[in-house]
Fold these 2 entries.
Entry 1:
Amino acid sequence: MSHKSPKDFFAPLAVGAPAPLREIPARPSRAIHFFDPSNPKMVDKIPQMVGTVDVLLGNLEDAIKADNKVAAREGLVRIAQETPGLGGASGTTQLWTRINSLDSPWVLDDLTTLVPAIGDRLDVIMVPKVQGAEDIHYVDRLLAQLEAKAGLTRPILVHAILETARGVANVEEICGASPRMQGLSLGPADLAADRKMKTTRVGGGHPGYLVREDPRDGDVTGPRAIFQQDLWHYTIAKMVDACATHGIYPYYGPFGDIADVVAAEDQFRNAFLLGCVGTWSLHPKQIEIANRVFSPSVEDIRHARRVVAAMGDGTGAVMLDGKMEDDASLKQCLVLVELAEELAAIDPSLKALYDGIEL
Ligand SMILES: CC(=O)SCCNC(=O)CCNC(=O)[C@H](O)C(C)(C)COP(=O)(O)OP(=O)(O)OC[C@H]1O[C@@H](n2cnc3c(N)ncnc32)[C@H](O)[C@@H]1OP(=O)(O)O
Ligand SMILES: O=CC(=O)O
Ligand SMILES: [Mg+2]
C-alpha cells in the first residue's frame, strides 16, 4: 500500500484547485438542521431560520422521494443563490448539503451541479454511508477538479456519516483520508440496519437494552430497578476518539422521535458530554434543544472560570470547594471556556449570559 508524503497531503488534487486547509475551523455547529429543498413549506421557512441555527443542510439523500431528487437539487441551488446570510465566507448560518450515496444514480449529478452553481456558498458536503478511505478519496479528487473548473478559492469541506459496520471499523482511516475532512456524524438508523441490530428506531435508546438490579433477598420475581443502557455509547466514543486524534469534529446524528423532546435532550446531552460538538435537527422544535444542550451552562462556565483563576500559572494543585484541581481539570475547564467564547462571538444572548457570570 502506498502512502502520500505529508507535504503532498496538502497539495491541491487538481491544477487550479484551492489549497487544502491545514486546520479545520472550529465554527459553531450545535444544530445541523435538515430540510427538504423540494418541499415548498420547508423552503418558505429557510430565510427566517438564517441566524437562528448554526447550520442549514439541504438534504438530497434518504427522506427525499426518488421522484423529487432533481427538484431537491435544483431547489437547493435556488435557495443558496437567493438567501442572504446563508453559507460562504460571510454567511451567518453555514450551508451544508447531504449528497446521495456514492453508489446511487444521483450523486454524480449532485456534485457536478452543486459545485459550479453554488460552490462558493457551500461550506460542507456530507457524504452518507462512507465505508472507508477510498470513498473520501473519490469525493476529494472529484471536488478538486470541479473547484478548479469553477474557479473557487475556498475548498469545500467533507463530512462523513458513520452508518455502516465497515465504516465504523475503518473510522480512523476515514478521518485521516483527506485534509478536507471536517467531521463525522453518527447515523444510527442505517448503522442499526447494516449491523442487523434488532431495533426499529431512528436513534435513541431501547427499553429492552438494560441492566437489572440483583434480586433483593433472593426473590427473582420481586421488584428490581432496571436501568436502560445507551445503545450508541460504544460507537460515539469510538467516533469521538477518532475525530479528536485527527483534529476534526464529531456529531450525534438524527433523533427520530420528534414528539419525545425529553429523550432527544438526553441523547444530545450524552453526546455533548462525551465530546460531540453538535447534533442533527430534523424538525424546527429540535433546534432550540440542540442550541441549549451544546452551549455550556452558566454553572459550568462559572466553575470553569473559578478553576482557571485559582490555578494561576496552571501548574501545581489547588483545593477548590473541597476538590483537588490540577493541570488536567484545568484543561477540561479551558475546553468549556473556549467553547463559550466561540459561541458568544456569534450569539449576543449567550454573550450577555456568559458576561454576566459572577465568580
Ligand atoms: C435517518 C436519516 O437519514 S434522518 C435525516 C433525513 N430525514 C429528514 O431530513 C427529515 C426532516 N424532517 C421532516 O421531513 C419533517 O419534519 C417530518 C416528516 C419528520 C415531520 O413533518 P410534519 O409532519 O410536516 O411536521 P409538523 O406538522 O410538526 O411541521 C410543522 C411545520 O414545520 C415545518 N417543518 C417540519 N420539518 C421541518 C424542517 N425540517 N425544516 C423546516 N420546516 C419544517 C412543516 O412543513 C410545517 O410547516 P407548516 O406549519 O407551514 O405546515
Ligand atoms: O442517516 C442517518 C441514519 O441514521 O441513517
Ligand atoms: Mg442514513
Note: The two ends are 56 Å apart (CA to CA).
Entry 2:
Amino acid sequence: TNSNEPPLVFHWFPFIGSTVTYGMDPPTFFKENRAKFGDVFTFVLLGKKTTVAMGPSGNDFVLNGKLKDVCAEEIYTVLTTPVFGKDVVYDCPNAKLMEQKKFMKIALTTEAFRSYVPIISHEVTDYFKRCADFKGKSGVVDIPKRMAEITIFTASHALQGSIIRNKFDVSLAALYHDLDMGFTPVNFMLHWAPLPWNRKRDHAQRTVAKTYMDTIVERRAMGDADKELDMMKHLMNSTYKNGTKVPDHEVAHMMIALLMAGQHSSSSTSSWIMLRLAQYPHIMEELYQEQVKVLGADLPPLKYEDLAKLPLNQAIIKETLRLHAPIHSIMRAVKSPMPVPGTKYVIPTSHTLLAAPGVSASDPAYFPNPDAWDPHRWEVDSPNAPTIIRNAVVEDEEKIDYGYGLVSKGSASPYLPFGAGRHRCIGEHFANLQLQTIVAETVRHYKFRNVDGGNTLIGTDYASLFSRPLEPANIHYEERD
Ligand code: HEM
Ligand SMILES: N#Cc1ccc(COc2ccc(/C=C/c3ccc(C(F)(F)[C@](O)(Cn4cnnn4)c4ccc(F)cc4F)nc3)cc2)cc1
C-alpha cells in the first residue's frame, strides 16, 4: 500500500481477500480489526479495496461525504436497478433521487399515519386468526416466516393501498419472492449473469411493475372516488422541479423500491423483536401491563395517539435496532482522493468506502453493558442509559436539507440505524409506526418464551442483503386468556 493509505488487513488469496471472514460475520470482523488498526483500515472484498471508517467520526466521514467525493448509486445500482426498475433511486442522478425522496416523504404524513394504525392492527389480528401456525391455544412457531407475512400484508396495505394489498394474493406473493431472489449480495458481482434467479427476478420485475401500472390507470379513472391516502396516489400526482410529471413507470418502480425497503427492514426487525421477547418473557409482560396502565384494562382498539403514550413499547424498537440493524454495511464509491481528518491517510479513488454504524452502537464507550438487550436503557435514569443521554448533552444535532426536508447530519451520534446525511432513511417514522403497532397488538394476544424455556438467542444470518435471524427460529407461544 502507498504510504498514506490506511493499513491493509492480511489475506492469503488475491480477489477473495477477506471476503469470507467479513461476509460470514461483519461485526466481529470490524471489531477485531478495529482493535488492531483503529477506526480506519482497508480490506479486500471480492477484489475491491474497501476502506472501513468507524466510530462517530467514521460515520460522519462516509455518510456526510460531499457529492463530489462519494457516490452511492455507483455501488448499489447493479443490485437495486434490476429489482426496482429503471430511472428511479440509483438509476438516476442524485438530484433526481432527492426529489423522489421528497415525494415519498410528503406522502408519509401524520394524517396518513393516523389511518395506518387501525389498518395494521386489523391485519395483525386477522393474521393471527387465519394463520394455521397459530391455531392452537399454545404451540411452537417459526417466527421469522410468520413475521415476513405479517409485514408484507401490513406494509402493502398501508403503504401501497388496498387495491395492491388485495392483489397480494398467492400470485403477487410468489412474484415478490422471485423479485426477492435477485436481492442478494452475490449480485454485487453476478447481477449480469444469466443465472436462473436473475431470469426469475427480471420476469418478476416486469410483471409486478405492470400490475402497478395497471392499478395506476385504474385509480386515475376512479378520480375523486378514490379516497385512500397511500403512497401510490401521492406519487401519481407528483411533478419534478423541471415541470415534468412523474411517469407511470417511475411511480411503479418507486413503489417496488419502497415495498422492498419496507419489507426486508421491517420483517428482519420484527423477527428480532419477537425472538427477544421470547428470550425475556418478563419484558413482554411489562409491555402488556404498560398498555393496561395507560389505555385501561379493556384495551380499546389501538389509535395513532396511543403509541406515544407507550414508552417501553417504543424503546423495544430502539433497543432492537441498536443490536440488530438490518443494514450492517453502508457503501460508497470514492470519486476524488479523500484525506481522512485527523490522520495522514488519503483514500484513493480505487477504493470503496464502508460505514458500519452498528459498531459504535455496541461500543461500551457509548452504551454501558452494550451486548445486553435492555429496552429500559433508553429511560433517562437507567444505569445502562447511553452516555449521551446520561450527560444530558442534548446535542442540538446539526440538520441540513438535501432537497427532501431537514435531516440530522448525525455526525456525533453513535446510534444511526437509519443512516445520516444525504442518503438518510425516509421510512423511519413509518417503520416505527408499523413495528410499534405490530408489537402492541401482539402482546395483547400472546405470551412468548423460548421452546426450551431458557434465555438463549439464535445467531444472525449475514449472507443475505439484510442481516436477519438464522432460520428456522422457533419460539413457544401461548394465547393470553
Ligand atoms: C427498521 C426499518 C428501516 C431501517 C433500519 C432502514 C435503514 C436505512 C438506512 C441505514 C439507510 C441509508 C442507506 C445508505 O446510506 O446507503 C436507509 C435509506 C433509505 N430507506 Fe430505509 N430503513 C428502514 C425502513 C425503510 C422503509 C419502511 C422505507 C420506505 C417506506 C425506507 C426507505 C428508504 C429510502 C428511500 C432510503 C434512501 C436511500 C438513499 O437516499 O440512498 N426505509 N434506510
Ligand atoms: N461472497 C460474498 C459476500 C460478500 C458480502 C456480503 C455482505 O456484504 C454486504 C455489503 C453491503 C450490503 C449493503 C446493504 C444494502 C445497501 C443498500 C440497500 C438498498 F439500497 F436496497 C436500500 O438502502 C435498503 N433499505 C433502505 N431502507 N430500507 N431498506 C434501499 C434504498 C432506497 C430504496 F428506495 C429502497 C431500498 F431498499 N439495501 C441493502 C449488504 C451486504 C455477503 C457475502
Note: The first strand starts at residue 40 and ends at 45.
